[in-house]
Known about the structure:
The complex is a heterotrimer.
Chain A: H1 3-34, H2 41-56, H3 77-105, H4 112-132, E1 136-137, E2 150-155, E3 158-163, H5 164-186, H6 188-198, H7 200-205, H8 210-236, E4 238-239, H9 245-258, H10 263-278, H11 288-302
Antiparallel strand pairs in A: 1-4, 2-3
Chain B: H1 2-18, E1 27-31, H2 40-59, E2 68-72, H3 79-92, E3 98-99, H4 104-116, E4 121-123, E5 138-140, H5 148-159, E6 165-171, H6 175-190, E7 194-201, H7 209-217, E8 222-226, H8 229-241, E9 247-250, H9 259-263, E10 271-274, H10 285-298, H11 304-327, H12 336-347, E11 351-354, E12 357-361, E13 367-369, E14 373-379, E15 386-392
Parallel strand pairs in B: 1-2, 1-3, 3-4, 4-5, 6-7, 6-8, 8-9, 9-10
Antiparallel strand pairs in B: 10-14, 11-12, 12-13, 14-15
Helix pairs in contact in B: 2-11, 3-4, 11-12
Chain C: H1 2-30, H2 38-54, H3 59-65, H4 69-92, H5 97-116, E1 127-128, H6 141-159, H7 162-172, H8 174-179, H9 184-210, E2 212-213, H10 220-233, H11 240-254, H12 262-276, H13 280-298
Antiparallel strand pairs in C: 1-2
Helix pairs in contact in C: 1-6, 1-9, 1-10, 1-11, 2-4, 2-5, 2-9, 4-9, 7-9, 10-11, 10-13
Membrane topology (chain A): Multi-pass membrane protein
Subcellular location (chain A): Cell membrane
Pfam families (chain A): BPD_transp_2
Amino acid sequence: MDFAWLLQSLLNGLSIGSVYAVFALGYTLVFSILGIINFAHGAVFTLGAYLTYALAVGRFGINGLLADVTMPVTLPFVPALLVGAVLSGLAGMAVERLAFKPLRQRGADPLLALVSSLGVALIVVNLIQYLVGAEIYSFPADIFGDLPMAVIFQIGGKPVAVRTIQIILFGASLVMLAGLGWFIGRTRGGKALRATAENADTASLLGISVNRFILGTFFISGLLGGLAGTLIGVSFGVAGPYFGVSYGLKGLAVIVLGGLGSIPGAVLGGLVIGLGEAFLPSDMSSYKEAVAFVLLFAILLVRPQGLLGGRLEQKV
Amino acid sequence: MKRIVIALALVLCAAQSALADKVATPIPIGIAVAQTSNVALFGQEQVNGAKLAEERLNAAGGVNGTKIALVFQDTAGDEAGAVNAFQNLLNRDKVVAIIGPTLSQQAFAANPIADRAKTPVVGPSNTAKGIPEIGEFVGRISAPMTQVAPNSLKQAMKIKPDLKRVAVLYAQNDAFSSSETTTFQDAVKELGLETVTVQKFQTTDTDFTTQVTAVLGANADLVIISGLAADSGNLVKQLRQLGYKGLIVGGNGLNSPNMFPVCGALCNDVLVAQAYSPGAVDKNPVNKDFAAAFEAAYKKGPAQFSAQAYAAVQVVVEALAKIEKETGKKIADFELADLRAALNKSLRTGTYLTPMGEISMAPSGEVQQKDFYVSKIVMNPDGKTGSFVLVSE
Amino acid sequence: MSGFFENYGFLIVTIVQQALLGLSIYFPLMAGQLSLASIGFYSLGGYVAAVMGTHPALAPLREALGFWMFPLEWLGALVLSVILGIAVGYPALRLRGIYLALATVAFVQVVNVAVLNMPIAGGAVGIFGIPQAFESRLDYIWFFGPLFLLALFLVWRIGNMGRGLAFFAVREDELAAGAMGVAVTGNKVTAFVLGCALAGVTGAMSAPFLNTWNARQGTFDASVTCLAYVLIGGSRSIWGPLCGAALLVSLPELLRPLKDSRMILNGIVLVAACVYLPQGIMGGLAALRARLSGRGGAA
């Protein structure tokens, strides 16, 4: 139990946790406004990674309709990331228009949105596979220039290391959190969003066009999802059309742990679960997958509104 | 009037199914692999290999001049999907044999269906214990990796004779990896090495920093990985990035070009245990042809899943040709049920020179593969493509 | 015609099997509780049957009982499901709505990890070569069919007696129901445990049906799919789960001719069903009937 080990585990936890946090931000945003879990978020996240790949690298593999196709123009990484994120934002809007708005208008059981968003996820994931196959795509290693692969330093004669990409992910999650916080707290659009979240009927009486703001929420959620998808794709490779969907379930644990609908809670929840996994004794690695859900179950029993959740109300 | 026509049609249908079916021409061979779901990463490689086999074997005359036609039915990634695909191939497509399914778990559910229908199944990628025992019509050409694991360890000892401390990592939720790792762990004991840590992960994991910390903390000088391409690629990458300098030996799941884009230049020098090696061409002209044709068709080296699917089609076609030779009767003149039975026998006789080298099928349906390989990953300067370079033959 | 059943027998039985899972979600929904725990009990029930059917230590018992081993497996699954259902239900059912759903999702995930770590469950490969009750897949309808009828009967019976009124009272307003003397927690747990027991027995019947059992049977996707059966079928009708399962299970098979793009269309149909049948298939049918009879009256 030496200090170097503690520090290394702390860094590991933050590193894993920031992956979860980055994923969960866009996920929790929709919940905070609509009180609905958007199962298509994982698919939009995946789409973001593929879109950025198409824009930045533009060469496809040997499977799918686009086999052997090379895009006529490619962008440098950062513009590609931004364009890819905006396109994912548009995809998020399409999800709202296809899967959520029609249900609201018809007064359907709110639970049905779980199913319809799952349907959209099925479409997106299989469309990606239809077009570019299930193979693994990756971004060039030098995408961030010539940064070293990892930062390694000595504590008491023992090495402690953290991968550069993890520092970037951690930073990105904080920047995204800060940006979102600024937008919601300080801008007029953000205030209208909060009003919509508080009470949609009152908001519409106040002259806020609720549907437009919901659409805006989905755009931002998709945008964040696209950014996150690309960053995680850079870190771990774009491992097939299902790679984002597999974060969905743990992402659910993350946003509930932090407090459903709480935006800083999503980051906190991610970090807590990451730390929980990192501090699990190494001879218990086979139980790592259960950590998030044991924490989730425990917090629900003790404090159902989550770590940072304020009000507890009946939404689905 | 209408009623009479319908009644007549019904009678005809009944009569049709009561009559014994003839074998169709071109000869239908079923391929039931995962073309959708998250197993499609492997399924699509199998499709590529099988399609290439169909094209090349037909160009070479098919079964003594009669062409074959592959019938693809998607199994998706689950057991029910595999059963449905098998039912379609057996009852509607009337295939002479089925090649598939992708996962061993699916095989346990679907193969008994084919066995009851007395139709031979050739497993192209099922490696779990107990597959050939499902029934007399079930066989496989994918070897369970009991022999190759020790080979790759011996190669590692050859490179670094003073190896001592071994860290073993494996994908706990993958059937193949979790059985392969026991073989590895036994081999480690037999070679007198010390296992300093055993770490488990999931094939869906992406971040391995805790496992890597454990490996570094245990001062291992050899890491053995049993996993699949995407997870193992990330594991190798993170091991190297966080400062692990020792040798890495990978199991058969790492024998895939899908590793290359994930760990990039950091894949270099990983030793991989192989049931198929694209580099083993010197003594094997069939593999030389196959690898070249695959490269020409897909601009990429063949994966093991592709090679095994190719070999499965090849084995079925050669077994069909053998039936014609021995009975002097064209395949198209057989009743379907008779041919399926004859094919099952024929599959289990003789040897086949496939891209994986010489293989045969024991009467039990178990594969007997002569050669296994150990290769070293050598990446190209672009850091995205690479190749497996044979270190043993 | 025999060809049809030969080819689609498995599919038909799968529809009933999945409808049972849908019904197991329907029970707690009757008392207003959204639980996704079913699939965990389904998985555990399957393991009970798989272990009892294959474990060498039980070979003498199997020989002595013959076919009666299967009902014993169901009983084993039932007992385990009821005990575990009560143990999970009491703490979890203090939660409501989405929080209960999430707690049950967490429970299913923990079960999955635990099972993967139990040597008796066979690790990632799972358990295979499970003794068969019937030759043909279609014959398994003699397992699932009666269970389905029994479950339907239970739903119908509960709906028409005091217990049902209590369930509905809890569904509509817990506080008011409690004030009127309805045992809120007791009724919620009863509804929950009924669902767990049904899912557990369904799992025990499914292990021989699939011939193999592994941790992949109890995934989160499967949980949501079960919920989809209820919602797509119509959550206010006892026939809803069957209709939903019939559509969702057969759809990928009907779309087989589309080859590579079939799963895309599958998603499109799913979304369209949600949008155009917001009350589910049964709700849509009821609306259609109302419209037709309304028109008939006017004419």
